[in-house]
User: What shape does this take?
Amino acid sequence: MTNLVERYVAAWNETDPAARAKAVAGVWTEDATYTDPLADVAGHAGIAAVIEGAQGMFPGLVFTPGELYDAHHGIARFTWHLGPEGGEPVATGFDVVELAEDGRISKVLGFLDKVPAA
Assistant: This one.
């Protein structure tokens, strides 16, 4: 599970479009869905676009794994942070994921616990 979260976070931090597409394909199934308060997309291209959009909204910030990792019956949840490298997070949240037979993510339901002030 920890390896999956590390690869998931790495995909969110990948700024090169070709490398990001490869990372997304390695973490999510082809028909995966991603839903959070700001997005509702399906497929690799949709997920990669959401990641690119988040990077555009928060330039220079990086995602890091949070403290919580838990999994059972093909479902997992974990927390994440977004902030300057080595600094205090400006955003935090948790994601609940469904895992496919091959270990990749087939569905993400994301929640935002802390967001920057507008």
